[in-house]
Amino acid sequence: MSVNRRFFVIGNWKMNVNQARIQEIVKRMKNSSLNPSTEVVVGCPSCYLSYARQQLPFHIGVAAQNCYKVSYGNVSGEISPAMIQDCGCDWVILGHPERRTIFCESDQFIREKVAHAQLAGMKVVACVCENLEDRQAQRTEEVLFAQMKALAGSISDWSRVVVAFEALWASGTGVLATPAEVQEVLSKLRLWLRENVSQQVANTTRIIYAGSVSSANCQELARLLDLDGFLVGSAALKQDIVDIINARGSQVTESQVSRLERVSHTMM
Fold it and tell me: Which is nearest to 224 in space by CA: 242, 209, 245?
């Protein structure tokens, strides 16, 4: 077997940009040498989706940071996949930890949004997360697997989905997750896919990590067997994003392939 999951980095600007700031970020990215083997997407506020799409090179994707579960209707303040596509964008972030915690979005609601986004032909960054209380209570698997179960029930085309795991206890807290901690969770998520969806989906679905990723730790994390990229927050607004995009080359080493084969055989 071969490992052919393309490295994926999405820089989520959140609510931290205006047109001038977008111009600065775009200029930085255009003037930098970015690894062409990395798929790059930016998460943009809905009011700037068209502007960002016009400013960025075509090979850099643009994602909405959220969307609603229907095409149109009397739902003030929301944006539909059809609107996102009308802005020239084909990615959307759903289930982001901030949507889950600040806006109390349930697994079921996120599931409905993912299902509609897939039906509309969108590509989805589907997020799962654990907080400090979950980790301290050793509920990581219980919490994440429940979120994965909800997501899986809404996904009709896994080739158009990237799964993003965020350790909330390591996001903007000053506490960094160790590579071993990150790999442990990512491997569990991939095993869940293998046991509950299919071997093929487990082998081909990209699983990325969020949690205070920066220039300082991206290269070490990028070497992890089950990590396929990053969902980046504050570092996406800085020079760090260039280093993160370039954190790993295009080739997976033979030793990594061998290790993945061994893991696959033991799970069959």
Answer: 209
pLDDT, tens digit, 9 for 90 and up, residues 151-201: 999 999 999 999 999 988 777 666 788 999 999 999 999 999 999 999 999
Of 171, 170, 164, 132, give the one whose Cα is nearest residue 148.
Answer: 164
Query: How many percent of the chain have pLDDT more than 90?
Result: 84
114-132 b/e with 16+ CB inside 10 Å = b? Answer: bbbbbebebbbbbbbbbbe
Q: Which of 39, 98, 105, 166 is catalytic?
A: 166
Q: For domain 8-267, is the CATH number 3.40.50.150?
A: no
What ranges do the domains of the chain cover?
A: 8-267
Q: Is residue 109 classed as helix, strand or coil in its secondary structure? A: helix
What number is the average pLDDT over the span 124-145? 93
Catalytic residue among 96, 98, 105, 116: 96
The pTM of the full predicted model, rounded to 2 decimals, is 0.90
Q: E-assigned strands of the chain? A: 8-12, 39-44, 60-64, 91-94, 123-130, 161-167, 206-210, 229-232
166 is catalytic: yes
- Whether 116 is a known active-site residue: answer no
